[in-house]
Write a sequence for this structure.
DNA sequence: TGTCAAGTTTGTCTAGGACAAAATGAATGA
DNA sequence: TCATTCATTTTGTCCTAGACAAACTTGACA
């Protein structure tokens, strides 16, 4: 296992770790790590254990640490840091514990069953806010600590998506209002947040259309027009660089007609200080319900400024 | 619309077009296109119309053309080339025509209904091979010609995925054999081919577990072990560079135990000449059925070499 | 406690050169 | 006529080392 001296070139490392080529080279210059071997053509060839270290580093960076503190540390130090990254870990109820157990033991069918049972016990809204939201956080924390592997997270997402899609299909109303388009921008491939939003808003009676992930900006504009959407909803995960989030939102807001509202949510926007004009930041899922209510009121009294109404309420 | 002089830096262009930074710079040097304006720090800033041209170029490259022929051509010439790229367009039946119509008019609910109706009319296997396979080709061709936008393709994929997932849920057998793990490698984000494979193999009585897309190689190995998989199935779309496909397959084959079979399919592997040892290339969907039958026979007579058995049959 | 300015860190961008893998076309053999 | 092999061109990716602006940290001040 240790002497598995497979070598990866810089392009593969970029794809496997999510760290850009330029960044890998500049880290080598600045911190002396990673230090790949060179092969004939002077090309960098990264051994497997360094790639593993880079994966750990990426986790720490995504959880808010800065490169100077972590780049170059050994596997043991990195793991130690990952262990005590307390974050804002949610209270672990017995129910959550049971979900975690099912994920760790790869019981996909039982997991789906447990999801469905919880939905009908708690109701969809409470299921999302009281079970899935903290569960996502918990799974994120476990993943950080290395207790849950990527493939186990994939299994979890897959099963949850199945269950949510089924529920949504049952409550979808083609004539609902407002008409909402859901998608993510290029670079953001996490669809789960979007799906949870879709469930919440469908339950509130909206007509939701999911466009999938990674839709280019101009295509979103065309889709909103074609579908006569009232609202476009974007989701950003915390893996997305804040700068890209900000730029992407601004670009879409500029390209979209003023009459179409832009709602953005997910852990990737929680780090944004302020919303641009004409953009609404969504925190917890209840925000979506509120936003829909506000939108309906604004439609009843078209001359009222939406932002003003919101200020007035708070 | 034309004077919308928005400017994009090279990173954004890479994400929006899928053409790498290095490639964009070397094209500029070699072909004199794209020729971005420069801003203070000498950074490239690409105007919107050049990005649009790059999108058209990318389509032509993906459909098999070479850069020297297309890079630098104007929008009109590019569109002309895109029009008469005959490819191997399937016979357009009335049924296919109707599906295309529904996609072009964004009737998501009607589309889902039509899918479901076709499944119960044709049976799942025939639905996949006689309707969806040619439909995918047709939609690809339409997209090439610009008759179908990306967002419309997204809508199509989304609805088809919903329908297939529902069908799979109904026929899934947790005790089926062989135990099959489905996923894609990092870089491949197209899940539809995988889902179609899952449907076919689930129908044949296999126990399929979907891992989602973009699973790192070592995670696939761990997942296969955890799930005691007999087979790992990968899918590659034609958008994937052949070199990456080959390297990825080889890497996974090397890391996976010999006892686990590796089946690869999708339009991205159709261009591969020969399969490596221990790797089986899948063409049409009937290949999957055959492979499952062969696997079961091989298990009944464990000393028989699988590859030899296949040669013997043909 | 909150806000602003100065200082530091960090990702991304630039240049032109280099090379190996892939595609092409010519020449060969079955 | 069709498949193989070899030489040639095309083409994506990788290289070095420097630069800079945006984001973050720190410390001073109200």
């Amino acid at each position: 296992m240790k002497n598995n001296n497979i070598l990866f070139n810089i392009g593969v490392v970029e794809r496997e770790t999510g760290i850009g080529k330029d960044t890998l080279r500049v880290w080598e210059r600045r911190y002396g790590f990673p230090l790949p071997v060179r092969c004939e053509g002077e090309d960098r060839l990264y051994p497997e254990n360094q790639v593993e270290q880079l994966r750990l580093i990426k986790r720490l960076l995504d959880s808010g640490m800065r490169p100077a503190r972590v780049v170059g540390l050994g596997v043991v130090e990195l793991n130690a840091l990952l262990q005590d990254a307390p974050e804002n870990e949610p209270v672990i109820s017995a129910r959550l514990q049971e979900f975690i157990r099912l994920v760790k033991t790869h019981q996909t069918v039982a997991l789906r069953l447990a999801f469905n049972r919880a939905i009908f016990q708690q109701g969809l809204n409470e299921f999302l806010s009281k079970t899935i939201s903290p569960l996502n956080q918990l799974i994120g924390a476990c993943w950080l600590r290395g207790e849950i592997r990527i493939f186990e997270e994939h299994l979890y997402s897959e099963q949850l998506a199945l269950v949510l899609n089924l529920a949504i299909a049952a409550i979808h109303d083609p004539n609902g209002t407002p008409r909402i388009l859901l998608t993510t921008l290029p670079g953001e491939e996490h669809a789960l947040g979007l799906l949870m939003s879709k469930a919440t808003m469908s339950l509130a009676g909206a007509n939701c259309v999911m466009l999938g992930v990674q839709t280019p900006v101009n295509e979103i504009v065309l889709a909103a027009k074609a579908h006569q959407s009232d609202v476009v909803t974007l989701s950003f995960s915390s893996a997305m660089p804040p700068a890209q989030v900000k730029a992407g939102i601004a670009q879409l807001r500029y390209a979209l007609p003023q009459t179409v509202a832009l709602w953005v949510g997910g852990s990737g926007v929680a780090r944004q200080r302020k919303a641009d004009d004409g953009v609404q930041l969504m925190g917890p899922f209840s925000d979506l319900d509120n936003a829909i209510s506000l939108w309906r009121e604004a439609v009843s009294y078209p001359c009222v400024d939406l932002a003003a109404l919101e200020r007035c309420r708070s």
About this structure: The mean pLDDT of chain A is 88. Chain A touches chain B at residues 6, 12, 15-16, 106, 108-109, 149-152, 154-155, 157-158, 162, 165-166, 169, 172, 174, 183, 186-187, 189, 209-217, 219-220, 222-223, 226-227, 247, 251, 254 (CB under 8 Å). The longest strand of chain A covers residues 43-47.
